[in-house]
Amino acid sequence: MTQPLIDTILEEAIAWIESDKQVVLATLVQTWGSSPFQIGSKMIIDEKGNFLGSVSGGCVETSVITEGVELIKNKNSFKKIDFKVSDENAWSVGLACGGEMTVFIEQIN
Amino acid sequence: MKIEILKEIIKKKSSNEQFAVLTNLSNGSSEIYKTGIPLSNNFINYKNDIENYYNLKKSGLINNTEILIQNYIKPIEVIIIGAVHITQYLIKFLKDLNFDVTVVDPREYFTTKQKFQNVKIINKWPEEFFKNIQTNSNTALITLSHDPKIDEPALKYALKKKFFYIGALGSKKTHDNRCKRLKDEGFNDKEIDSIHGPIGIKLGGKSASEIALSIVAQLVSETNKYKNF
């Protein structure tokens, strides 16, 4: 379907910021092979590692959360992360489906 | 992303506008794009590609670049005739799937606030309702009142306007009789066959929630086949 599932993640991001959290927005920007989610799928992460939403249905979430927390800690504004099955870490982040994906994370400020 | 842009996206989404969000992944800048809005220096070099992706409502990285376009499209409008028990479940499913829902039923006592919250309810006869709204082929019609007086004027309107999905509740016998009446009114076989009746895919369920699920499954399947959004 070209219309996305109802998506209130951006509204949640605003609510988090208004309650004084630092927020990183993660967006799925590219997939190859059998990645399950559609481009534009989103997740938000705060400085403590709390998260909402999803970019992959569970495969790379843990890694994206860690990167999000790091981004806030290091005061960086954005980062592009490639997940590949051939990567040594692929099994640890669970990309066993053989897909590849790129996730863009950015601070909201 | 700047919080101002985020707020603007939310505003545009809630007013059902079509627009896109552009992000330059090499410098992190984002902006909102619509036909007629000039592009900033971050994106101006990709003008043709951006317009192309926007018109095709395609989201993703523009060919071999660091430019991400995310298209936000207007939700598909679903008109439900009949505020019956199935309707209550159907609304829940449809909202989770980002359809825009309007329920039409002239019987006010069927549409109490208790049963129908946060949904557009119109207490009018379908003929009257359709006089005052704009529809197009991206509209879907689901008739559930089970009363020909209420359902059939809506079906006739949807057939004439070529809605992409038309479904009518009723047993095979009820539907056969309905088809005969439509034929007598001058609709041809092709038009009549475009009505999904009895509505829904076969799940074998009889409860209101199961019927709602079978209807929504059929609607989603037809929506995915229909590519002109």
Which properties best describe this structure?
heterodimer, A: 109 residues, alpha+beta, 5-stranded antiparallel sheet, 3 helices, globular, B: 229 residues, alpha/beta, Rossmann fold, 2 domains, 6-stranded parallel sheet, 4-stranded antiparallel sheet, 18% strand, elongated
What this model shows, in words?
The complex is a heterodimer of chains A (109) and B (229). Chain A is an alpha+beta fold and 109 residues long. Chain A has one domain (9-108). Chain A is built from 3 helices and 5 strands. The model of chain A is unreliable at 1-5 (pLDDT under 50). Chain B has 2 domains: 3-72, no CATH class; 77-225, Rossmann fold, CATH 3.40.50.720. The model of chain B has no long low-confidence stretch (mean pLDDT 92). Chain A binds chain B through residues 1-7, 10-11, 13-14, 17, 25, 27, 29-30, 38-40, 77-78, 80, 102, 104, 106-109, and chain B through 1-3, 6-7, 9-10, 13, 23, 25, 28, 57, 59-61, 68, 70, 73, 75-76, 95-99, 220, 223-224, 227, 229.
Mean pLDDT over the full residue set of chain A: 84
CATH topology of the largest domain in chain B: Rossmann fold
Assembly type? heterodimer
Largest sheet of chain B: 6 strands, parallel
Order of helices and strands of chain A: HEEEHEHE
The rounded distance between the terminal residues' Cα atoms of chain A is 32 Å
CATH class of the largest domain in chain B: Alpha Beta
Considering residues with a beta carbon less than 8 A from a beta carbon on another chain, report the largest interface and each chain's count.
A-B, 28 and 30 residues
Note poorly predicted spans of chain A: 1-5
Per the principal axes of the C-alpha atoms, what is the gross shape of chain B?
elongated
In percent terms, what proportion of residues of chain B is strand? 15-25%
Q: What is the helix fraction of residues of chain B, given as a range? A: 25-40%
The domain tally of chain B reads 2
Mind telling me the C-alpha Rg of chain A? Answer: 14 Å
Number of strands of chain A: 5
Number of domains of chain A: 1
Order of the strands making up the biggest sheet of chain A: 3-2-1-5-4
